[in-house]
Design a protein that fits this description.
6 helices; single chain; 279 residues; alpha+beta
C-alpha cells in the first residue's frame, strides 16, 4: 500500500487568527446565553441535519497560502513529481487542520458539507491558497459521541441530505480522507508520433502514466481511511487538474468520507416521489 507523501499532521500547533477567535467566541456565547450560528448549508440540508439530532454551531474555515517548489523532470520519462505531491498534500492538510481546530474550539462533534478548494493567486505562478470550509455541528443529546478516535471532530464532505441518510442507515462519518499524486507524463518522441500518426493504436506510455498516478492517489486515500479504522469510504471522487505546471504535469486528487458502522440494522427508507409545484 502506498503511503501518503507527508509524515502525518504537522506537529506545529496551528494558531487561529485574532478575528477568527473573536468570531468563534461570539458564536459560543456565555453560559445559557443563546448562540448565534452561521452555516453554508441550504435550508433543506440544515433541517435534515437537525432531524438527525445535530445542531449547527457555526461556519468554520481553514486556510493556507503555500509556495509550491520547483522540480525538474526528464521530458522522456514517466515519473511522480514528489516535491509537488508533498506540497499539494501538505497545504491541504494545513487548511483542514485549521478548520478542524476552529470546530474543536466551538465544542463541535464534527464538520459537515466540507469544501476543499485551491485558488491560484496573481502573486506568482507557484503560489496558491488552499481553503477548507464547512459547518460545525454538535449532537443535541449525546455530545462527544461522534468524535473520531483521536478525540477530534469528524469531517465530512457529504451534503446535509447524504449525512442524514448515512446516519439513518446505521453508519457514521469518521473523517474526510484524501490522497494525491502529481505526475509527469513523458513527451512522445517525434519518431513515435510519426509511426502512430496514421494508425489506431494505444499510446501505452500515456495509459500507464495516468493509470499509475490515479492508483497512487487512491491508495493513499485508502490508507488514511484504514488509519481511522474505517469500514469504507463513501462519496469518493477523483479530481484531475494541471494547475499551472504545463500540459505534461498533472495532479490526481482522491477524496471521500471514511465511515464506520454504528448499527447492524441498516434500515434504508424507501424513496418517495416529490412533485414540484410550478406556478
Amino acid at each position: 500500500m502506498a503511503q501518503n507523501p507527508t509524515s502525518g499532521t504537522d506537529p506545529q500547533i496551528t494558531a487561529i487568527p485574532q478575528h477568527a477567535a473573536e468570531r468563534l467566541a461570539e458564536m459560543r456565547g456565555r453560559g445559557e446565553e443563546a448562540r448565534l450560528f452561521t452555516s453554508d448549508l441550504s435550508t433543506s440540508e440544515l433541517l435534515l441535519v437537525k432531524e438527525a439530532g445535530f445542531d449547527p454551531l457555526g461556519l468554520v474555515v481553514g486556510s493556507s497560502i503555500y509556495h509550491i517548489g520547483f522540480q525538474q523532470s526528464a521530458w522522456s520519462q514517466n515519473q511522480e513529481m514528489t516535491v509537488l505531491t508533498q506540497a499539494m498534500y501538505h497545504a491541504r492538510e494545513l487548511a483542514m487542520d485549521r478548520m478542524e481546530e476552529e470546530a474543536h474550539q466551538l465544542g463541535a462533534d464534527g464538520v459537515v458539507g466540507v469544501r476543499l478548494e485551491v485558488n491560484h493567486k496573481e502573486w506568482g505562478q507557484h503560489i496558491a491558497e488552499f481553503v477548507a470550509i464547512g459547518t460545525a455541528v454538535v449532537h443535541r443529546n449525546d455530545p462527544h459521541r461522534y468524535k473520531n478516535k483521536h478525540g477530534r471532530p469528524f469531517t465530512s464532505d457529504l451534503s446535509g441530505q447524504d449525512f442524514y441518510i448515512l446516519l439513518r442507515s446505521g453508519y457514521r462519518p469518521l473523517g474526510m480522507v484524501m490522497g494525491n499524486c502529481v505526475y509527469h507524463i513523458a513527451v512522445q518522441s517525434f519518431g513515435a508520433f510519426m509511426r502512430n500518426f496514421s494508425q489506431n493504436t494505444e499510446l501505452t506510455q500515456y495509459t500507464q502514466a495516468l493509470y499509475d498516478s490515479r492508483e497512487l492517489a487512491m491508495e493513499r486515500m485508502q490508507k488514511e481511511a484504514e488509519d481511522l479504522d474505517a469500514k469504507g469510504i463513501v462519496g469518493a471522487n477523483i479530481h484531475e487538474r494541471t494547475h499551472a505546471w504545463g500540459a505534461h504535469v498533472i495532479e490526481f486528487f482522491a477524496i471521500g468520507t471514511a465511515v464506520e458502522e454504528i448499527s447492524s440494522d441498516h434500515v434504508i427508507e424507501p424513496p418517495t416521489i416529490v412533485l414540484p409545484l410550478v406556478s
